[in-house]
Amino acid sequence: MRLCYQQEVLIKEVPITGITLLNSLGLRGWQVGQLPQAPRLKGTAIDSMSSSASKTRSLGPVYTLKVAGERMTFLTDAKDFHNFFQSTDVDFQKAVQSSVQKIASVTEEAFFKNHTKIHDTVKGRLSFHKLPPFCETLHSKFKEHLVGIKNQITIKNGCEFEAELNDLVRSTMYKSIMDNLFGDGVLPTHDEAAFKEFEKNFLIFDEQFEYAARLPKIFLREWTKSKNWLLQMFTRVTKQCMQTIPADVESRSLLQTLIAVIDDDFSPNWSMMMLWASLANAIPITFWTLCMIYQHQRVLEKVQSEVRQVLKENEKCDESTLALMPYTRQCILEAIRLRSPGIFTRRVIKEFRVKGYNIPVGDLLMVSPFWAHRNSQQFPDPEEFKPERWENIEKNSFPESFIAFGGGRYQCPGRWFALLEMHIYVSLFVSLFDCKLLNGVPDLCELHLVGTQQPVQKCPVVLSLAK
Ligand code: HEM
After folding, report:
1. Alpha helices for 126-208 (secondary structure H)
2. Helix 108-125 with 92-104: angle, nearest 10 deg
3. Which residues contact 113 (CB under 8 A, 6 or more apart)?
4. Is 350 helix (H, G, I), strand (E, B) or coil?
5. 189-202 mean pLDDT
6. Using an 8 Å Cβ cutoff, are 223 and 212 in contact?
7. What is the DSSP code (8-state) at residue 361?
8. How far, in Å, CA of 70 to CA of 432, rounded?
9. Is 75 helix (H, G, I), strand (E, B) or coil?
C-alpha cells in the first residue's frame, strides 16, 4: 500500500507498511488517503502500539490519513502539542459534537447550548481543592468492598483465593465510584442482581463506544439495546433526582450539580456520558497499575513497605495520609503514561499552520498521548515501567510532555479525582492482599482509540491475605 505526499508540484510517494500502523491505531480496515499539502515526511519515528522496534514508522512530525471519509492530520512532535491545545484555530467542541450526538443522542443544538456549562460545572465540582471530602468517602467504600473479598479469603481459612483481576477491580471500584459521584444507592449499587444487570449493559456500551461514534445503528443492535437500557435508567434516576436537589450547593452530588445546570430535556443523556467518562479510563488504568506493580518485584516491595506502614498507623484516609505514600502515586502516573488514551482530537476552524504546512479548515487534528508517552527523548527507556521517573513531580501539575488528560480549555475535568481514587484504591489493595499474577501482564487490546486500552486476555491471579 502506498501513501502519496505532495509538496507544491512535487509528489513524493512513500511506501507505507501502514496497515500495521493503522492496525496498531485500532483503525482496522479504514483507508489511508492522500495528503493535500504535504509535509516531507521525515524525522520523527512513531512506535506502534505494540511498540516493537521493527514496527517503527517514519511518517514524520505531521501527516494526514483519510479515515472513513474524514481527513485526520496527526501531530507527533511534542513541540507542537502546546499549539494543538491552545490555538484558537482549532476547536474541541466541533471535533466531538457529532460523536456525542451518535453516542448519546444529544442534538447539535442541545450540545452547543450545554456543553461548556457542563464542562465547567464538573471541573468546579471535582477541582483540586474540592477533593478532601472524597478522600474519606472513597476510602470507606473501597474498604467495604475489598474487605468483602478479604472475608471470602478468611472464610476459606486463610487459604488462597483465585480471581480474575480485571473483574475484581471493576466490581469493587464501579460501585464505590457510582455511590461517590451519583449519590449513595442512586444508581443500582446496593442490589447485587440489579448491579449485575447494570454492569452487563455498561460493559457492552463501553466496549463498542468508539464504533458507535462512526457506524450506522444497523451494525450496533446489541450496543443500541444497552444504550437504551442505560438511558431509561438515567431517565428514572434524573427525574427522582430533580425533586431532591438540596438547596445547599456544597452538599450536592456530582449528578445533582450536573442536573441543576442543564436547561433542556437531555439530562439523562449527559448523565450517561458523565458516568462513562468517570469509569471508562480510571478503572482499567487502576487494573494496569496493579498488574505492573505485582509484575515488578522491586517495585512491589517498595509499595508494600510504604502502604503497609502508613495504613497500619492511619485508620482514616485523608490528604496527609496519601502524602505519606508518594511512591504509590508514582506507580499510578507511570501506569497512566503507559496506558494513555490512543488519541484526542480538535477540528481545524481556521487554516492551522504547523512546521511550515497549512492544515486546511475541516481537518481533524489529532494527537496521540499513547505514542507521545513513548518518545524516548522525554521518557528514556519508554517501554520500561519506572515509577521513579515521577519522583520530583509536583502534586498538582504535570510535565508538558505528559498529556494523558488532554489540555487547554477542555482538559479532562476529572483528572484530580481520578488520581485520588486510584491512589486510595491501589494503596488499600496492596495493603490488604498478596497477589500472584498467574499468566503475567496481559497484552493490550488495540481497539480502543479514544479511551484507554483494555487487556486482551484474562488476568488470573491468586490472592492471599497480606502477611
Ligand atoms: C486516568 C483516568 C482518566 C484519563 C486518562 C482521562 C482522560 C481524558 C481525556 C484525554 C479527555 C479529553 C481531553 C481533551 O481532549 O483535551 C477527557 C475528558 C473528560 N474526562 Fe477524563 N480521564 C480520566 C478520568 C476521568 C474521571 C475519573 C472523570 C470524572 C470523574 C473524567 C471526566 C471527564 C469528562 C467529563 C470529560 C469530557 C470533558 C468535555 O467534554 O468537556 N475523566 N478525559
Report:
1. 132-155, 165-182, 192-207
2. 100
3. 263, 264
4. coil
5. 96
6. yes
7. T
8. 49
9. strand
> Which is nearest to 161 in space by CA: 464, 433, 435, 458?
464
Give the burial class of 163: count Cβ atoms within 10 A of its Cβ; 0-12 exposed, 13-18 middle, 19 or more buried: buried
Amino acid at 343: I
Tell me which residue has its CA closest to atom 25 in ligand 1: 414
What one-character DSSP code corresponds to residue 443? P
CA of 40 to the centre of ligand 1 (A): 34
**Is any ligand 1 atom within 6 A of the Cβ of residue 122?**
yes
Q: Which of 267, 404, 433, 413 has its CA nearest to residue 334?
A: 404
User: Which residues lie below 8 Å from residue 39, measured CB to CB, with a gap of 6+?
Assistant: 5, 7, 60, 61, 62, 63, 355, 356, 357
Ligand 1 near 41 CB (within 6 A): no
Backbone angles phi, psi at 367, to 5 degrees: -130, 140
Please name the amino acid found at residue 131. L
Mutate to test the pocket of ligand 1, among 253, 289, 412 (most ligand atoms within 8 A of CB): 412
Q: Kindly state the cell numbers that stand for 56.
A: 517503527
Closest Cα to atom 9 of ligand 1: 405
Is residue 282 in contact with ligand 1, taking CB distance under 6 Å? yes
The alpha carbon of 25 and the centre of ligand 1 are apart by a number of angstroms equal to 20
pLDDT digits 0-9 by tens, 83-123: 999 999 999 999 999 999 999 999 999 999 999 999 999 99
User: Is 412 annotated among the ligand-binding residues?
Assistant: yes
Nearest-CA residue for atom 1 of ligand 1: 282
**Cα 34 to ligand 1 centre (Å):** 32
Q: Is 99 in the pocket of ligand 1 (CB under 6 A)?
A: no
Distance CA 328, CA 466 (A): 17
**pLDDT of 9:** 21
Interface pTM, i.e. ipTM: 0.98
Q: Is 114 in the pocket of ligand 1 (CB under 6 A)?
A: no
411 lines ligand 1 (CB under 6 A): yes
